[in-house]
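Subject: Predicted fold for Liver carboxylesterase 4, 738 residues

User T.R. writes:
Posting the sequence so we have a shared reference for the thread.
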Amino acid sequence: MRASAAANLRSLSRIGIHRSTVRTRTRYKATTWTGKQHLAGLSTHSIHYRMRHSPLRMAAMASLLLLALTVVAKASSAPTSLLFQNDGNWTAHGERPSALLVHTPARRRQAETICADYEEQLLRCDDVHQFRHSFQYQQYLGTLTNETLLWTACSTPVTLSGTSAADNVSSDGEWPFVCTNSAPLVDRVDTDYSSFPRLNATARNITFEGLRDHLTFRFVGIPFAQPPIGTRRFQYAEAWDATNVSYVNATQYSPACLQFGYFDGNSYDLNPWGNDEDCLYLNVYTPFLPGDTDVPEDQLKPVLFWIHGGGFSQGTGSDLTFDGGSLTSRSDVVIVTSNYRLNIFGYLSLDDGTIPGNYWMSDNIAALRWVQQYIRGFGGNPNNVTIFGQSAGGANCIELVASPQAAGLFQGSIQQSAGNGRFSTQSAIAELAEPYLSPYCNETGAARLACLQRLPSSVLLNASADIFFTPVIDPVYLPDAPMALVAQGSSYINSVRMMSTLMPEECQSLTTTTLAPNMSDFQTALDQLIPGGWIDQEQADHIIPSGLWLISNETFHNGSTSYSSVYNASVKIATENNQECPNGAYAMVGAATVAFPSMHVAYHQRGYALSYYDFYDLCTFSVGKPDTPYYRCHSSDLYEVFGTYYIYDQPIRVPEDIYYTSAVQDMWGSFARTGDPNVAREYLIARGYNTTLEFFAGWRWPEFTASNMVLADLQYPRPGYTDVPDLEHCRYLASVQY
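User M.O. replies:
I've generated the structure tokens; pasting them so everyone works from the same file.
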């Protein structure tokens, strides 16, 4: 195996990936109860407090507490699934019925009482047929059988197909039952959750009070680390101290971390929760709550742990682009979205042994450790966790794969538009930062740290606004460049199942307005890419003379590529240099050294621009006009993965938008379950996902290996295959890079 890997690495030099590119260094081997609203906010302590100060009410309050605890105990032993047949049509989510399947058998009168405790009722008899696929899927999972009957509002128990039970079935029997779910759909960023029904999940003897909506159970604003303020600023994350904690209110999103940009306050109507240095909180979205039942591991759901992007300087896990309602209901997974410290607060390194950097990584690892401890109480399987992220979040996934501190915390990684990670050295970040910080704190070592910890957070944020922070190589969290570690093989990284995806024209939106679509001078366009780091001066000087990027309508077959405009050529060059070439190199090195148990790589040939991230309105096409040329831009895969178009009032352009989004969500869910994005046919049949069945008819997403370096070309209705793109261009860009 080692000899074979070495031979594979030697072969990489022939396609432009040299040993210097992959230098090496160090080796390292629920309580599912929705009570009345006036009880929802009362902790046991607050009830006792009121009893103590209202003696005349003590008996009444004691009875009320006993009643509440009785109802909680009744529901606590009942695993509950939220049923919603998500057909992908996001404009109709609020019109399709939703229901609650309580798995613990009960007599009809008990079932009616428990539904009433949810402020619901048994499912109307006329609506049972709409959940046929949901029941069929539960049978596929093994939680229901052919012999299972269900209590609904029908006069007799019903079979899983919705027909009445045989006449000889006792009307006093104990069966699982289905309640209505009248909770509203979350369809606005500024949703008012005060009227949403509450429910509890219990994990490690802590009650987490969350919310039930039309698509999912959600628990938001959960602390996973101690607040990184005061003397914890510029320190690695400390685990959440749950000592003496018995209750967590998880009904309100937490503030985003301090930043500039789209999520600095709510000026873009994206962040009604504000910003704070105390920001280490996460959100859990789940289709299933086990209650107090010791559910077998094979009935727990795979966990997808999302790391948001934003150039290491902005973003939040509470961005409702990443709302988990659609993806949990479609793919039957638990979604965790998390905050981590950004910009100077997460990435400052002064190369002095006191402020080493990579606090962001310690935050993500602290959140992943929280998942290991608590996610079982939310129906998630702590032994089947996949990290996934896009842009800087995808790069963070690559760094977590390379970090010894993250060992054993996840089993898979999905990197969307991540290149091969972004990193720098501690000394380079220190050189950038020290001129901005020395006017405030001119000390060194521990004295400088103490000074920086005393400064108002706004001073630090404003002083560092012009610095581009990145992860750094450091001996604790990131011992070497990620690709250098991958080049040494599986023993040097967290060897997990890996999947990566790209958009064809990433830099059309990434470069914002650096380039203008009507530019006519190629060299001017190239020069404008230099200040943002999209290419360097040497590359800009050599690209036109190389003849590999030509502005022409003719077709060339000698390694040159023809573009119809200066703008198109320039966007493609920036995309190649920053996304395609690094991503391809990472995949090829990983395949050559057999660093991962499996790898799947793909291009999205379809995109849908974020509503606020399309600077020239060229990253989408108009409703009903699919033949209009458009760019598949950076972030144009996010609506497709999370299905959250409806939160931002985005229209269905053509029916294929629905079918493609469904296929993408099915593939991401399949990878989370099994490490393979090829969705099992039996699963699709059980769920009634016919359009994805058609998507996979005669096609499979190939595994990426040293002997078969093939990418999936994802499109609807017909996906295809492609080779690693633009290798000739990548070789040349690497050869002239400064």
